[in-house]
Amino acid sequence: MSESKKLFNIAKKVIPSGVNSPVRYFEPYPFFTKKANGAYIWDADNKRYIDFCNGYGALLLGHRRKEIIKSVSNQLSKGTLYCTPTESEIELSKLIIGNFPSVDKVRLMNTGGEATMTAIRLARGFTKKKKIIKFEGCYHGAHDSVLVKAGSGSAHNGISVSDGGLDEVSKNTLVVEYNNIEDLQKTIRKNKDIAGVIVEPILANMGLILPEKNFLSDLRKITKENNIPLIFDEVVTGFRVAPGGAQEHFGIKPDITTMAKALSNGFTISAVGGKKEIMDLLSPRGKVYQASTFAGNPISVSAAISSIKTINKIKNKLYSKLERFNLLFSTALDDMATDMKIPHQINFTASMFQIFFTNKPVVDYQSSKNANAKKFQKLFQTLLKKGIFIAPSQFEVVFLSDAHTQTDLNKTLDAYHSALTSVKN
Ligand SMILES: Cc1ncc(COP(=O)(O)O)c(C=O)c1O
Where exactly are the transmembrane stretches of this chain (predicted)? Predict the structure, then answer.
């Protein structure tokens, strides 16, 4: 019996479902990880995988990036938690503000979900209104007001509204189709009580779904005309698609931004930033409460400072390399699936892509759900056997990192060939 199977049998007894986050589970049991380095991750049986899950997008610079390890090691010798302000927090805030011109002030916290929860509370506090508009399939964390028709693990597990979640909360969340501006306009016309609109500017939680031309600019225009704060959830896209996130990539300024993941390349930190007049509503001087023991902890802050500095230093090479790799890979994969006469779609941008087994374009929640998820599972399982680790769900994304080499990608493409053969048969 494999070490992972043995560990999973024990884990099930002490951890619900044996995992600490739902998408980590896959059939028949997930592999247990021993270590990771660069582009690779090793399981408990010492099998090496090329990692394309990459901490669900966090590891833009690869595992154990030397600059980050150095600065965290340095901080470890000075203490791990102070719960008092530090000069490093100022340095990090200035770096974030420097990369995101829409951000005048920024508050640090720990997880993406915490950041979106605070962003929504800020929008409500600012407008003194109740309702939030979110888009179908966008995932903003595991809290009640956004766990409505959400993507990621909740779509994977077929959960539209979680048991234990309050209807009183979710009824204040209005859900609109992604890429459907008319639906948004209709919803705004019908409801006077809208506190904010939250969106993933690139939808990376239903597989990968790109915003159609003008979708984001129309969204910005309409929210501005109606005095509705626009929240860009850049938990995935921040630092990953550009040093200033999707808002830099598309040239759009939201009112509030959330970020996490690639902000620190694998440490626990998130941030909410935005216009001064909104951010100044946060407690203690403002009346919108937000607090956390671990917020701005010196370990995560040192990792984030080092990540942003590294990204800013190598940005000219980094993004063009990742885009080139992605274009070559996605095009080759597309050709391969076409030659094999497998109905498919490939959506890709920046350092992210996903394949869907369907002959219809994947542009929203429903078209993503209509793709053949069973075939995707076959693809995932064959890739895994071949030493390629992608996230185990159709509703996640394949993430490239700076640590991947051309050789890794060639090997991965060979593995996709075997995986597509298994899908066809
Ligand atoms: C776009 C987006 N927002 C928010 C979150 C929630 O982040 P966390 O899992 O750190 O709470 C995620 C997680 O994948 C995400 O993809």
Answer: none
- Which numbered atom of ligand 1 lies nearest the CA of 21? 9
> 345 - beta bridge partners?
356
Residues annotated as part of the active site: 139, 233, 261
Show me where the domains of the chain are located: 3-64+314-424, 66-310
Q: Mapping DSSP to helix (H, G, I), strand (E, B) and coil, where does residue 234 land?
A: strand
Whether ligand 1 lies within 6 angstroms of the CB of 396 is answered as no
How high does pLDDT run on average in the chain? 96
Q: What's the whole-number mean pLDDT along residues 53-79?
A: 98
Mutate which of 139, 145, 396 for ligand 1? The one with the most ligand atoms within 8 Å of its CB, which is 139
Strands (E), 48-204: 48-51, 105-109, 131-135, 173-176, 194-199
Q: What class has domain 66-310? A: alpha beta
pLDDT in tens, 190-239: 999 999 999 999 999 999 999 999 999 999 999 999 999 999 999 999 99
pLDDT tens digits for range 358-417: 999 999 999 999 999 999 999 999 999 999 999 999 999 999 999 999 999 999 999 999
Helix (H, G, I), strand (E, B) or coil at 359: coil
Question: Which CATH superfamily hosts domain 3-64+314-424?
Answer: Aspartate Aminotransferase, domain 1 (3.90.1150.10)
Residue whose token pair is 């399939």: 137
Q: What is the pLDDT of residue 159?
A: 63
Which parts of 62-204 are beta strand (E)? Answer: 105-109, 131-135, 173-176, 194-199
Q: What is the whole-number distance in angstroms between the Cα of residue 338 and the centre of ligand 1?
A: 33
